[in-house]
Design brief:
Length: 327
């Protein structure tokens, strides 16, 4: 009997967790399809013009689950670091919290460290899958099961679901680079969280040690839900300038020191509330943090659990006969 093959759509934390467990624990080959150039999903990292690594997706991640803790520490080793500087309210009141972790080489590196030996088809967008006997056609290839880890509006389209997808909250993000080392509150404070203003989050990346050169200061700012919805379809030049001004006021920055600003539009930053999924076609699965808390750790745990459900499904269904790729 031929070995089953699994297609996993999306190489974020849910996708790499699912594919890794399928291969390492269950011995089931999996192919990851990723529409961007690299792995990580919302664990995303950019390089500035002078080569500095900046996280413009998940700013940090938690480590609560013992299994996740064990695997992440083993995979990342001494590249796994924690942020020690405080997060405060706008008035300077510290916000208590658990340890906040990041990857020394960029949070996108977390996905790569957790999936070193997987087959990843980068720059390959999957917009639909088609049934074929007891299998599925994905990008012209036959697979016994498909796992989509894309945001639910995209997953619903890929899996051919007619139900209206759950609502997501967008997030507009700004990277602001300045000449000189951090000064003022930025010298000792990591971030400001403002639940009531247009700038919900702004953080000084210099507090992620080993990232930012001593002669630069870099901030990452994220708009509130209201701000992000209002400007989602507006030219980034407009909302980028507005966010730069808000960031400068929050941290008392001199606009003359700004040397670069980059923008990013996260259309599906997080789900508005945990979703209950409709019945999926046999042999198709969803993994991701949309059904729980919008956290890096939740996405990985969802992918890990989904791998077991895929393996259980395959023990009940015959593997598809081998077939050549269909152009």
């Amino acid at each position: 009997m031929p070995s089953p093959r699994i297609a996993v759509i999306g190489a974020g934390l849910a996708g790499v967790a699912c594919a890794s467990r399928l291969q390492l624990e269950f011995g089931i080959p999996a192919v990851l399809f990723e529409k961007s150039r690299g792995r990580g999903g919302r664990c995303a990292t950019k390089r500035t013009v002078d080569g500095l690594l900046v996280d413009h997706g998940a700013q940090y991640f938690t480590i609560r689950d013992p299994l996740f803790s064990s695997i992440v520490h083993r995979a990342c080793g001494d590249a796994l670091l924690s942020i020690n500087a405080p997060i405060t309210c706008p008035d300077g009141t510290p916000i208590p919290g658990e340890p906040r972790w990041y990857h020394r080489d960029g949070n996108s590196r977390l996905a790569r460290d957790l999936s070193p030996d997987l087959e990843v088809r980068s720059s390959t967008e999957i917009s639909r899958i088609d049934p074929l006997d007891h299998s599925w056609l994905v990008n012209g290839e036959r697979f016994d099961a498909v796992v989509s880890t894309a945001p639910l509006p995209q997953s619903y389209r890929i899996l051919g679901l007619s139900d209206p997808p759950p609502a997501y909250i967008p997030c507009l993000t700004l990277i602001l680079s300045l000449n000189g080392p951090p000064t003022g509150r930025a010298a000792s404070q990591y971030a400001v969280r403002d639940r009531s203003g247009p700038l919900e989050w702004s953080a000084c990346e210099n507090h992620k040690h080993g990232r930012i050169a001593s002669h630069r200061t870099v901030f990452v700012s994220q708009g509130s839900e209201a701000f992000s919805r209002a400007f989602l379809e507006v030219d980034p030049i407009v909302w980028g300038a507005a966010m730069a001004d808000l960031t400068a006021r929050t941290w008392n920055l001199n606009p003359a020191d700004v040397i670069e600003h980059l923008t990013h539009r996260w259309r599906y930053a997080r789900i508005a509330s945990p979703a209950t999924l409709p019945a999926l076609p046999p042999g198709t699965f969803f993994a991701g943090d949309a059904t729980s808390a919008s956290r890096v750790e939740s996405a990985w745990l969802s992918g890990h659990e989904t791998a077991a459900r895929v393996a259980a499904f395959l023990t009940k269904a015959p593997a598809a006969d081998p077939a050549p790729a269909i152009p």
